[in-house]
Predict the structure of HAD family hydrolase.
Amino acid sequence: MIFDLDGTLFQTETLLLPAYHATFDQLRAEGAYNDVTPPESVILGSLGMLLEHIWKQVMPNSVEAVHRRADELLLDYQMKGLQNGEGELYSGVPETLRQLQELGVRLFVASNGLEGYVKQVVAHKGLVSLFEGLYSAGEYKTRSKVDLVRLLLDQHGIKKAWMVGDRSSDVEAGLENGLIVIGCDYAGFRQDGELEDAHVRISRFTDLIQLIAE
Protein backbone atom coordinates (compact mmCIF):
# COMPACT_ATOMS: atom_id res chain seq x y z
CA MET A 1 0.00 0.00 0.00
CA ILE A 2 1.50 3.29 -1.16
CA PHE A 3 0.56 6.47 0.70
CA ASP A 4 0.75 10.11 -0.20
CA LEU A 5 1.95 12.15 2.80
CA ASP A 6 0.33 15.60 2.89
CA GLY A 7 -3.43 15.50 3.19
CA THR A 8 -3.38 11.70 3.57
CA LEU A 9 -1.27 10.81 6.60
CA PHE A 10 -0.28 14.28 7.78
CA GLN A 11 -2.41 17.35 8.47
CA THR A 12 -0.11 19.55 6.43
CA GLU A 13 -1.64 22.87 7.38
CA THR A 14 -0.74 22.38 11.06
CA LEU A 15 2.95 22.65 10.12
CA LEU A 16 2.87 24.43 6.79
CA LEU A 17 0.93 27.60 7.52
CA PRO A 18 3.14 29.01 10.31
CA ALA A 19 6.19 28.24 8.13
CA TYR A 20 4.49 29.79 5.09
CA HIS A 21 3.96 33.11 6.85
CA ALA A 22 7.48 33.07 8.31
CA THR A 23 8.88 32.42 4.82
CA PHE A 24 7.22 35.52 3.37
CA ASP A 25 8.25 37.63 6.35
CA GLN A 26 11.86 36.62 5.68
CA LEU A 27 11.60 37.13 1.91
CA ARG A 28 10.38 40.66 2.55
CA ALA A 29 13.18 41.24 5.08
CA GLU A 30 15.70 40.17 2.43
CA GLY A 31 14.10 42.42 -0.19
CA ALA A 32 13.28 39.43 -2.40
CA TYR A 33 9.51 39.95 -2.20
CA ASN A 34 7.72 43.24 -1.71
CA ASP A 35 4.02 42.41 -1.65
CA VAL A 36 1.57 41.04 0.89
CA THR A 37 1.66 37.33 1.68
CA PRO A 38 -0.60 35.48 -0.80
CA PRO A 39 -3.74 33.95 0.73
CA GLU A 40 -3.31 30.63 2.54
CA SER A 41 -5.90 29.13 0.19
CA VAL A 42 -3.47 29.47 -2.73
CA ILE A 43 -0.77 27.26 -1.26
CA LEU A 44 -3.25 24.84 0.30
CA GLY A 45 -4.93 24.45 -3.08
CA SER A 46 -1.53 23.72 -4.65
CA LEU A 47 -0.59 20.86 -2.33
CA GLY A 48 0.21 17.70 -4.21
CA MET A 49 2.15 19.55 -6.89
CA LEU A 50 5.93 19.66 -7.18
CA LEU A 51 7.34 22.61 -5.22
CA GLU A 52 8.52 24.34 -8.38
CA HIS A 53 4.93 24.35 -9.62
CA ILE A 54 3.54 25.42 -6.24
CA TRP A 55 5.61 28.61 -6.20
CA LYS A 56 4.53 29.43 -9.74
CA GLN A 57 0.96 29.37 -8.42
CA VAL A 58 1.77 31.30 -5.25
CA MET A 59 4.24 33.84 -6.70
CA PRO A 60 3.65 33.90 -10.47
CA ASN A 61 5.45 37.21 -10.92
CA SER A 62 8.61 36.31 -9.01
CA VAL A 63 11.78 34.99 -10.63
CA GLU A 64 13.08 31.45 -10.18
CA ALA A 65 15.79 32.51 -7.74
CA VAL A 66 13.10 33.77 -5.36
CA HIS A 67 11.20 30.50 -5.72
CA ARG A 68 14.32 28.50 -4.84
CA ARG A 69 14.99 30.75 -1.82
CA ALA A 70 11.39 30.14 -0.74
CA ASP A 71 12.10 26.38 -0.98
CA GLU A 72 15.00 26.75 1.44
CA LEU A 73 13.14 28.95 3.89
CA LEU A 74 9.95 26.92 3.93
CA LEU A 75 11.85 23.68 4.57
CA ASP A 76 13.93 25.28 7.30
CA TYR A 77 10.91 26.70 9.11
CA GLN A 78 9.04 23.41 8.80
CA MET A 79 12.01 21.46 10.21
CA LYS A 80 12.17 23.86 13.16
CA GLY A 81 8.44 23.43 13.64
CA LEU A 82 8.77 19.64 13.73
CA GLN A 83 11.57 19.91 16.28
CA ASN A 84 9.24 22.06 18.40
CA GLY A 85 6.51 19.43 18.24
CA GLU A 86 4.33 21.16 15.63
CA GLY A 87 2.31 19.25 13.04
CA GLU A 88 -0.36 16.60 13.50
CA LEU A 89 -1.19 13.26 11.90
CA TYR A 90 -4.79 12.54 10.98
CA SER A 91 -6.78 10.67 13.60
CA GLY A 92 -6.02 6.96 13.72
CA VAL A 93 -3.00 7.04 11.38
CA PRO A 94 -0.40 5.33 13.61
CA GLU A 95 -2.82 2.68 14.85
CA THR A 96 -4.16 1.91 11.38
CA LEU A 97 -0.68 1.65 9.87
CA ARG A 98 0.36 -0.76 12.61
CA GLN A 99 -2.73 -2.89 11.99
CA LEU A 100 -2.00 -2.99 8.27
CA GLN A 101 1.60 -3.99 8.95
CA GLU A 102 0.43 -6.74 11.30
CA LEU A 103 -1.83 -8.00 8.52
CA GLY A 104 1.25 -8.37 6.33
CA VAL A 105 0.70 -5.31 4.13
CA ARG A 106 3.93 -3.73 2.85
CA LEU A 107 3.76 0.04 3.43
CA PHE A 108 5.42 2.84 1.44
CA VAL A 109 5.24 6.62 1.11
CA ALA A 110 5.32 8.39 -2.27
CA SER A 111 5.28 12.19 -2.04
CA ASN A 112 5.99 15.09 -4.37
CA GLY A 113 7.71 16.87 -1.47
CA LEU A 114 11.36 17.48 -0.67
CA GLU A 115 13.43 14.58 0.67
CA GLY A 116 14.24 16.21 4.01
CA TYR A 117 10.64 17.20 4.62
CA VAL A 118 9.21 13.74 3.91
CA LYS A 119 11.80 11.88 5.98
CA GLN A 120 11.63 14.28 8.91
CA VAL A 121 7.83 14.26 9.14
CA VAL A 122 7.83 10.46 9.21
CA ALA A 123 10.69 10.40 11.74
CA HIS A 124 9.32 13.05 14.11
CA LYS A 125 5.90 11.39 14.13
CA GLY A 126 7.38 8.00 15.05
CA LEU A 127 6.41 6.16 11.86
CA VAL A 128 9.80 5.12 10.44
CA SER A 129 9.57 1.47 11.51
CA LEU A 130 6.23 1.06 9.73
CA PHE A 131 7.41 1.88 6.21
CA GLU A 132 9.55 -0.22 3.91
CA GLY A 133 10.45 2.79 1.79
CA LEU A 134 10.03 6.58 1.68
CA TYR A 135 9.97 7.94 -1.87
CA SER A 136 9.99 11.66 -2.63
CA ALA A 137 10.27 13.68 -5.80
CA GLY A 138 12.96 15.70 -4.05
CA GLU A 139 15.20 12.65 -3.61
CA TYR A 140 14.54 10.86 -6.90
CA LYS A 141 14.16 13.97 -9.11
CA THR A 142 11.01 12.63 -10.76
CA ARG A 143 8.86 14.93 -12.86
CA SER A 144 5.52 13.42 -11.85
CA LYS A 145 4.07 11.14 -9.21
CA VAL A 146 3.35 8.63 -11.99
CA ASP A 147 7.11 8.30 -12.49
CA LEU A 148 7.84 8.21 -8.75
CA VAL A 149 5.36 5.40 -8.11
CA ARG A 150 6.61 3.46 -11.14
CA LEU A 151 10.15 3.71 -9.78
CA LEU A 152 9.00 2.45 -6.38
CA LEU A 153 7.17 -0.50 -7.91
CA ASP A 154 10.13 -1.44 -10.09
CA GLN A 155 12.71 -1.20 -7.32
CA HIS A 156 10.70 -3.43 -4.99
CA GLY A 157 9.38 -5.87 -7.59
CA ILE A 158 5.76 -5.04 -6.76
CA LYS A 159 3.09 -6.13 -9.23
CA LYS A 160 -0.08 -5.29 -7.30
CA ALA A 161 -0.69 -2.45 -4.85
CA TRP A 162 -3.13 0.13 -3.55
CA MET A 163 -2.45 3.85 -4.02
CA VAL A 164 -3.85 6.00 -1.20
CA GLY A 165 -4.03 9.77 -1.58
CA ASP A 166 -6.11 12.92 -1.65
CA ARG A 167 -5.22 14.67 -4.91
CA SER A 168 -5.57 14.11 -8.64
CA SER A 169 -1.83 13.41 -8.86
CA ASP A 170 -2.35 10.40 -6.58
CA VAL A 171 -5.28 9.15 -8.65
CA GLU A 172 -3.29 9.55 -11.84
CA ALA A 173 -0.23 7.82 -10.35
CA GLY A 174 -2.32 4.88 -9.29
CA LEU A 175 -4.31 4.48 -12.49
CA GLU A 176 -1.32 4.94 -14.81
CA ASN A 177 0.51 2.20 -12.91
CA GLY A 178 -2.45 -0.19 -12.82
CA LEU A 179 -3.09 0.13 -9.09
CA ILE A 180 -6.27 0.22 -7.03
CA VAL A 181 -6.82 3.85 -6.03
CA ILE A 182 -8.26 4.88 -2.67
CA GLY A 183 -9.22 8.55 -2.55
CA CYS A 184 -8.95 10.28 0.83
CA ASP A 185 -11.86 12.66 1.10
CA TYR A 186 -11.11 14.28 4.45
CA ALA A 187 -8.31 16.82 3.95
CA GLY A 188 -10.31 19.52 2.19
CA PHE A 189 -7.49 20.72 -0.10
CA ARG A 190 -8.75 19.14 -3.30
CA GLN A 191 -10.72 20.72 -6.11
CA ASP A 192 -14.09 19.38 -7.23
CA GLY A 193 -13.77 16.21 -9.28
CA GLU A 194 -10.19 15.35 -8.32
CA LEU A 195 -11.15 12.01 -6.77
CA GLU A 196 -13.95 11.01 -9.11
CA ASP A 197 -11.81 8.36 -10.86
CA ALA A 198 -10.67 6.70 -7.62
CA HIS A 199 -11.95 3.16 -7.19
CA VAL A 200 -13.01 3.88 -3.59
CA ARG A 201 -13.25 6.99 -1.40
CA ILE A 202 -12.82 7.05 2.35
CA SER A 203 -13.92 9.75 4.78
CA ARG A 204 -11.64 8.57 7.64
CA PHE A 205 -8.18 7.04 7.52
CA THR A 206 -9.31 4.21 9.77
CA ASP A 207 -11.71 3.03 7.03
CA LEU A 208 -8.72 1.33 5.37
CA ILE A 209 -8.94 -1.61 7.75
CA GLN A 210 -12.50 -2.38 6.68
CA LEU A 211 -11.50 -2.15 3.00
CA ILE A 212 -8.69 -4.66 3.52
CA ALA A 213 -11.09 -6.98 5.33
CA GLU A 214 -13.43 -6.91 2.36
